[in-house]
Write a structure and sequence with these properties.
By secondary structure, the chain is of the alpha/beta class. Helix content is 39%, strand content 17%. The longest helix has 15 residues, at 7-21.
Amino acid sequence: MKLSAPPFRLKHQARQLAREARLPLHVALDRIAAREGFRSWAHLSSAQSNANSEARILDALTDGEMLLLAARPGQGKTIFGLNLLAEAAKAGIPSTFFSVECSLQDIKRRFPDHAVDNLFGPEGIQIDLSEDLCADLIVDRLSDVREGTVAVIDYLQVLDQRRTAPELEQQIKVLKNFTTRRGIRLVFLSQVHRSFDPDKKRLPDFSDLRLPNPVDLSLFSKGCFLHDGQMALLAN
């Protein structure tokens, strides 16, 4: 997950903030971490120990596969998904972000200012913020992309919210057929059920996904699960 400055500079900013605002250092560190999109300084530090995680996920996801990227709220899955697309764009791979949750300003704020123009130019990440997010829209938008394209859908459960759309499992089957036929790669951000207890197991897995309606999870070849700055990539 990319930072606006190296960690040692962020620590220096936190010390300045602590002096100016008369805050305990740990409070200032947490505020700086929150500005960077993390839950706490400990979360930021743990996440940085997994540097290049996005590149590893991109390498592990072969053409024609679908992956679930799942976590509880506040664990960085949106940042992770966007950084995965940034890795693809830097490698010359077409990439698209679908979301009804984020504005364009929200998305761009997650990257350093100097990276925005390059990442979101004509050859960079394409953004689709249509309110009518569903399988048919995704297929339509990606109908002309080349093999190897990577797209992130924010998020799986949103596809289940439109009354006029087919059942979620049917939509996933449509997308699986399309993905396999066209040789593209789809990543679905997904919610984890609130019953997940990190005191009982370190990271969530497929059994912890929050699915209001049944979905055949075998349609997804892999799952990437995040919690407290840690990551696990699981084959399905």
